[in-house]
Design brief:
10 strands, 2 helices, 4-stranded antiparallel sheet, 5-stranded mixed β-barrel
Length: 149
């Protein structure tokens, strides 16, 4: 991302965009894919930061304890697959979710762009986060404990 004169320019692997004042021009493939969704992540993110919110490319499920479990990782790591295997847990979202900082706690809120699953809770409902998990694509099926951070 860079600035040219009074224009903000974003050049990503799957879209190019320019924002000048309140007008945005973008170039991405004509079909709905990651480029389309990544453009919206770029466009919406800056406005959310001023509201103590951020968009995460993630899947998120609500556990039996009514807390959010957030799964992060690169495309193809298994975020949507994790939701597919959710069994009796509610799915908040499998592609974009909104991270919310409120009263010194971290919450998740359903995003409305992208994904195969529609949120099973209202879009305005906040769910306190219990944990974040990083997914790596692998041929092996295994769980590894992460160090706290």
């Amino acid at each position: 991302m860079d600035f040219f004169e009074d224009k903000e320019i974003a050049i990503q692997r799957d879209f190019v965009a320019m924002k000048e004042n309140q007008q945005v021009k973008a170039i991405f493939n004509s079909y709905v894919n990651d480029g389309f969704f990544n453009f919206f992540r770029w466009l919406i993110c800056r406005d959310l930061v001023f509201r103590d919110k951020a968009i995460l490319h993630s899947s998120c499920m609500i556990g039996k304890n009514q807390k959010a479990y957030v799964f992060l990782g690169p495309s193809g790591a298994g975020k949507t697959t994790t939701c597919t295997n959710a069994e009796d847990r509610k799915i908040l979202g499998d592609d974009m979710n909104i991270l919310v900082f409120k009263n010194e706690k971290i919450y998740m809120q359903a995003g409305s762009i992208g994904g195969r699953f529609e949120s099973q809770i209202p879009f305005d409902q906040l769910v306190e986060v219990h944990g974040f998990y990083w997914l790596n694509q692998s041929k092996d099926l295994k769980l590894e404990k992460l160090s706290p951070s």
